[in-house]
Amino acid sequence: QVHLVQSGAEVKKPGASVKVSCEASGYTFTSFGITWVRQAPGQGLEWMGWISGHNGDTTYAQKFQDRVTMTTDTSTRTMNMELRSLRSDDTAVYYCARCSGGDCYGRYLQHWGQGTPVTGSS
Amino acid sequence: AIQLTQSPPSLSASVGDRVTISCRASQGVSSALAWYQQKPGKAPKLLIYEASSLESGVPPRFSGSGSGTDFTLTISSLQPEDFATYYCQQFTNYPFTFGPGTRVDV
User: Fold this and answer.
1) B45 touches chain A (CB under 8 A)
2) Which residues in chain B have Cβ-Cβ distances shorter than 8 Å to A34?
3) Secondary structure string (H, E, C) spanning A91-111
4) Average pLDDT score over residue span A6-35
5) What is the mean pLDDT of residues B61-65?
């Protein structure tokens, strides 16, 4: 059974960085990519980008291109998403989601983590 | 970026009702569209992929149709556990945008 377990809630000051992790189990880690999606309080879903589980290739939404880094650690079966220069409007729940294939181009999101709340507060 | 518009933004329905939600794309996405259900405080759950394919384990009262720019999610007989927000998402062009959601409540 596929499980994605994310790291715990974070509170960060504006300008800081946050790193959210997503530990995967129940499937061949290198065979599926991971997408990151966020959801601001009371708002809809926002696609941030994806990382290949096979080779670590990434594609980021242009909106986040300069501030986000997604990485993979095959030894610990963990995907990470770091967002830098946090602003108050980065306050959101951040989700990892496993794509339906090795890369995430043209792939739907089949399994989701539980979400990690990130709060920007001075 | 491709814009997705959902209608209605919200609807009130009763158990047993047939519910239809529309998703319209600003440009064609072929069949590269999925539908998700989200309940308060929970992660989204995949219902339909490739516009009309039912995800394993999802009840058959859910169905999807459409291609190109116009898509529909139908719940044939609404059940108590179906009260939630529903999102469509396209997978053709980056960024892989989501619709704004349709809230289904009593």
Assistant:
1) yes
2) none
3) CEEEEEEEECCCCCCCCCEEE
4) 95
5) 98
Nearest CA in chain A to B50: A108
pLDDT for residue B22: 98
Picking from A44, A61, A100, the nearest residue to B95 by CB comes out as: A61
Q: What is the mean pLDDT of chain A?
A: 95
Sign of CA dihedral B32, B95, B3, B9: positive
A84-89 long-range contacts, CB within 8 A, separation 24+: A84/A17, A85/A15, A85/A17, A86/A12, A86/A13, A86/A14, A86/A15, A86/A16, A86/A17, A86/A18, A86/A118, A86/A120, A87/A14, A87/A120, A88/A14, A88/A120, A88/A121, A89/A40, A89/A120
From CA A43, how far away is CA B53, in angstroms rounded? 27
